[in-house]
Specification:
2 domains; Myb/SANT-like DNA-binding domain-containing protein; mainly alpha; Myb_DNA-bind_4; 5 helices; 150 residues; two-stranded antiparallel sheet
Length: 150
């Protein structure tokens, strides 16, 4: 296994970082089709990972070019909501309103997240998110913030 490099990509206002070998980075930089296949594979992997382990990035190690599936399906938008900036701001605002309730043990967190998701959908119909997606997004935001300040 060769040395891995960070390969950040901006996708729908969210930075996705791949960890890939040098050859993969060079090929993705030169070949738009290959880059699109990496993006599709990452989106599919993130959708599966988010449901199972709440992991914000996908690690693709020493990905051989021939293992890229040319027939990747489009991701299911219900599972993989892309968070526009305004949705993130709304999430933070709604979380801040309920922060005391999260810190106390009077109400279960999953109920609070469902309430936040309902409020987001009521504010904007295009924000079709679940309580779990809201919880995952805030966890990723906190993790990113901690990584930046460390």
């Amino acid at each position: 296994m060769g040395d891995l490099m960070e390969f950040p990509m901006l996708l729908n206002d969210e930075v996705i970082t791949l960890f890939v070998n040098k050859e993969t980075v060079e090929k993705a930089t030169r070949d738009q089709n290959f880059l699109q296949q990496l993006i599709n594979k990452t989106l599919n992997k993130n959708a599966e990972t988010e449901l199972l382990a709440n992991t914000p990035t996908t690690t693709l190690t020493d990905l051989p070019n021939e293992n890229i599936d040319n027939n990747l399906k489009d991701t299911d938008t219900a599972k993989n909501f892309m968070w526009p900036d305004n949705a993130v701001y709304l999430l933070l605002e709604l979380y801040q309103e309920k922060e005391e309730m999260f810190n106390s043990s009077f109400k279960k967190h999953n109920i609070l997240w469902k309430e936040i998701a309902t409020s987001m959908r009521e504010t904007n119909n295009s924000y079709n998110v679940t309580g779990q997606q809201c919880s995952n997004k805030l966890s990723r935001l906190k993790r990113t913030y901690r990584n930046i300040i460390d």
